[in-house]
């Protein structure tokens, strides 16, 4: 099942009139560089429903990370609108948790202190935050490394710290940029199942960027395909698979058909 980007105004679980948690319209982003302007996004539109798990796939350099940074309030758009929870995005917001493509940890802080950072910045109750951080460090399998420094961790372990950090303040919206790309295959499967679990139990809304088509299909209510740069959304697919999904889901005919369809669309656009 698929539909054009412009026709997909609502999320899988929401009624037609449910307001979007994140909506972009006519969104453009131009980077001025010494060698001329680079248009990363052009006239991009999307609408993510409250509680929806929405994935973005697209060729390398098409503007996925740029879109995530605009949604996170870290980069101002050049044109168009982006609205989160009914209010235009003008800077970072506390109801958002971000996992960056690179972990961006503070090297002088331990794993636990890196995870606690958003709680500290937001002035949350630190006793409660510490208990939650400990749970999250366990969840990402780093309980034995809570007191270690980032330089003592592998790339995949650092990325897992970044995932725990994004969740510590219990944000309503998660923006995740290839969060599992640096993980080994088994940890990646484990984290996919855990993320589905977190999403199902907390009702968070997720914008998830990945290069992995099976990962996008496994996790999402909808998968959007971006064009090559300048990036815009050229197609959105509903994922009509029941929940919870498990590893056996990846053997389903419906799962594989959609993966094949997406693979074809990406090849056309590369
Ligand atoms: N800070 C910047 N200054 C200038 N150009 C940039 C900057 N960041 C990104 N770009 C350019 O914008 C385009 C989109 O980059 P972006 O990182 O958003 O792509 P992406 O889709 O996330 O790619 P990948 O899949 O490889 O992570 C690229 O052409 C890139 O060179
Ligand atoms: Mg990127």
Mean pLDDT across the residues is 91
Please give the number of β-strands. 11
Number of helices: 7
The rounded distance between the terminal residues' Cα atoms is 23 Å
| Each distinct ligand | adenosine-5'-triphosphate, magnesium ion
Largest sheet entry = 7 strands, mixed
CATH class of the domain at 50-76 and 88-95 and 172-269: Alpha Beta
Class per helix and strand makeup: alpha/beta
User: CATH topology of the domain at 50-76 and 88-95 and 172-269, what is it called?
Assistant: Rossmann fold
Question: Looking at the structure, what is the overall shape?
Answer: globular
Cα-atom Rg, whole angstroms? 18 Å
List the strand order in the largest sheet.
1-11-10-4-9-8-7
Order of helices and strands: EEEEHEEEHHHEHEHEEH
> What is the helical fraction, as a range of percent?
25-40%
**Low-confidence segments:** 1-16
CATH H-level homologous superfamily name of the domain at 50-76 and 88-95 and 172-269:
P-loop containing nucleotide triphosphate hydrolases
CATH architecture of the domain at 50-76 and 88-95 and 172-269: 3-Layer(aba) Sandwich
Q: In percent, how much strand structure appears in the residues? A: 25-35%
Secondary structure layout plus pairing:
Layout: E1 2-3, E2 20-33, E3 36-49, E4 53-57, H1 64-71, E5 79-84, E6 87-88, E7 96-99, H2 111-121, H3 126-139, H4 155-167, E8 173-177, H5 185-202, E9 205-209, H6 213-219, E10 222-226, E11 233-238, H7 253-269
Parallel strand pairs: 4-9, 4-10, 7-8, 8-9
Antiparallel strand pairs: 1-11, 2-3, 2-5, 5-6, 10-11
Helix pairs in contact: 2-3, 2-4, 3-4, 6-7
Bound molecules: adenosine-5'-triphosphate (ATP) and magnesium ion.
Residues 31, 33, 38, 40, 58, 60-66, 101, 229 line the site of adenosine-5'-triphosphate (ATP).
